[in-house]
Request: fold
Amino acid sequence: MLSTDLVLSREEVQQIRDRWLEQSKGLHQGGTPILTSGLKVVPWSTPAKDAQLAELSKLSAERICWAFGIPLQLLGLANTPATSTEALMHFWLATGLGFCLNHVEQGFDRLFGLEGEPRDYTEFDTAALLRSAQKDRIEALARGVQGGIFSPNEARAAEDLDVVPYGDEPRVQAQVIPLSAAGSIPAAPTPLVPPSAPVAKSYQDAVQLDVDALRTRTKRIAASNGAAEPQARVVRKVRDNALQRPAGR
Reply:
């Protein structure tokens, strides 16, 4: 609100109002108006009596919510927001809404002459109130299908999707068995350990083992290639540190 001690005409008041709006509305919102002619900005304050009345009105609304079990977050009266919408709806169903729905269900039972629980009774589906975020909902349905609680078509029906062939039967993984059948499961076969190579007792024995291994490998390679088995050749020793090649070489 703007105030001044000067006496202004209607045209002057309208001119000042137009200049103020030019600096505070539309594209010029947030501008800095320059006040002249002794104009002063007077903040609009709420009298203490009105503030007390507003506080009493808020307190009355909170007590009404407490009496009927309505969460304050639904009416914007709470100082702290709820952790999630699903948790808020769970709290409302447990404290106030579930009580009212139970009385309405019993009224329908009397109206249609139903016997009541556990045979004929009315029960409202509150699953729509508990619909959480899509990611959490899909993860819960996927775990239910993998654990054999829901069939694929039941999970698809919860998301208003069409049924698929062979999707009416729940399924579990092959390794999920009852504890009573655990004793009849054969033990896993132990892997075959190849025999260890013989240990040579002396240097001559070690040399002989190497020669035998080379001969075995040569025979295996020749057999795989279709070649004839090599003939044994005689090696004659003529000196202590020299070997003579076979005849014909």
Notes: The chain has a mean pLDDT of 76.
